[in-house]
Amino acid sequence: MARAHTPPSRRRIGALAACAAALTATGTALAGLPASAAEMPRGHDVASHQKTVDWEKAQAAGAGFVYVKATESTAYRNPYFAQQYGGAGDAGLLRGAYHFALPDKGSGKAQAEFFVRNGGDWSDDGRTLPPALDIEYNPYDKRDRCYGLSKVAMVAWIRAFSDEVLRLTGRRPVIYTTTHWWTLCTGGSPDFAPDHALWIARYGSADAGKLPAGWSSWTFWQYADRGALPGDQNLFNGSADQLARFSKGA
Questions:
Q1: Helix (H), strand (E), coil (C) string for the chain
Q2: 142 band by pLDDT with thresholds 50, 70 and 90
Q3: What domain range is 73 assigned to?
Q4: Is residue 125 annotated as a catalytic residue, yes or no?
Q5: Is residue 45 annotated as a catalytic residue, yes or no?
Q6: Which of the residues 72, 136, 164, 232 is marked catalytic?
Q7: The whole model's pTM is what?
Q8: Whose C-alpha in 3, 5, 68, 124 is 20 to 30 A from the C-alpha of 79?
Q9: Is residue 39 annotated as a catalytic residue, yes or no?
Q10: What's 207's domain CATH number?
Q11: Residue of 113, 121, 125, 134 marked catalytic
Q12: What is the total count of domains within the chain?
């Protein structure tokens, strides 16, 4: 996921065709697709790295939705958020906001409050995707991937964040993560799957495998960190009508 500060280098991958092949070859983890990858709504996610985005161009290139980074911890706000979020909406894209979690820099409740105050709110207007929590490897200390929290403490942190977002917005956050991080840092907790949509980060067939514990399907798939659209490349697991209903809370 794009972050506010310079992240560790990330492995680049191939084109969507290779990823579509991975979709159909991963067995139970990615079974039961409602449509072929080519028919799924395409989207992307952006942060301050992308600066001022040409949203008309993104829409013309096939973007149907976007997630925009709003906040990180309890101190950082994306300085391009207003242009990115507002511009995406003006161009007709469904758009939502995401928060980059730093569980060692504040409680889940405090970070959720900061996020919702600074762009992470939700409306059932049919144009707004639910808030999203980006929780993954610590980008500032490779030796401390779980931010110094035990597995039990990490599950509690995520639950506190989710509960506060629900209280403030009426929606549970979408959870963005990787299977490896989820297993390593939550112990493979299945507690969130029943009421949280999964946004899985998985790049290419080499990363194909099981979803995080509890989830039998993904809602969003981030399959590349570059492509035709600005920022990271994503798919929605359904039709355009299903995406619109999802945005409204269905």
A1: CCCCCCCCCCCCCCCHHHHHHHHHHCHHHHCCCCCCHHHCCEEEEECHHHCCCCHHHHHHCCEEEEEEEEEECCCEECCCHHHHHHHHHHCCCEEEEEEECCCCCCCHHHHHHHHHHCCCCCCCCCCECCCEEECCCCCCCCCCCCCCCCHHHHHHHHHHHHHHHHHHHCCCCEEEECHHHHHHHHCCCCCCCCCCCEEEECCCHHHCCCCCCCCCCCCEEEEECCCCCCCEEEEECCCHHHHHHHHCCC
A2: confident
A3: 16-247
A4: no
A5: yes
A6: 136
A7: 0.86
A8: 124
A9: no
A10: 3.20.20.80
A11: 134
A12: 1
